Amino acid sequence: MPFDPRNIPLTPVEARVLATLMEKARTVPDSYPLTLNSLITGCNQKSSRDPVMEISEGEAQEALDSLRMKTLAVQISGSRSTRWEHNFPRGIGVPDQSAVLLALLMLRGPQTAGELRINSERWHRFADISSVEAFLDELRERSEEKGGPLVVLLPRAPGARESRWAHLLCGPVDVAALQSAASASGGAGGNASALQQRVDTLEAEVAQLRATVQMLCESLGVEPPAIQAAPTE
Fold it and tell me: 37 in a domain, yes or no?
């Protein structure tokens, strides 16, 4: 029977760990499955994360053990180190396209269908926004026998052009809190938002390169090079 978040919802740390495994499986497949250290780096990166978190090694390991009990993560023992991979589509009972959308919602918080389509480009290329909306509607109308809805369409926030979607894997959504947070950050303006998106993309690429270097160093049995701080004026 698929995992039912209504009975045992994911914790925020479990959701971040699970979604990070799903992200890296698609964006850096050469580094996947992930070691614990690589997973923690991905969970705590500053780009493409909402909220930004600081997950400790103990918290990450506890989340992995819990996800394994829920059949959502799998431990793989290798000759050099233990690695982890997700089992989300099968464990939750959804197609790959729906799994991509749920992972993005877990990583980046509530988003519009258009934002989800843009943010999923490196994971899965949806034909158009209508295709994204079709999978979201399917997740919202999921039958009780399969575990009930996995997403909810939030009321449109004041001043917003479109409504945003949120996942239900961590339990019911506090709509009032989300709207308050959105209102507090909504005055940045379009140019700042576009610039931030470019910065997020570049930071994500750097994080992925670092993960690849770390994997290569682990396979060669050498220490990764120290990262030098940028000079200040």
Answer: yes
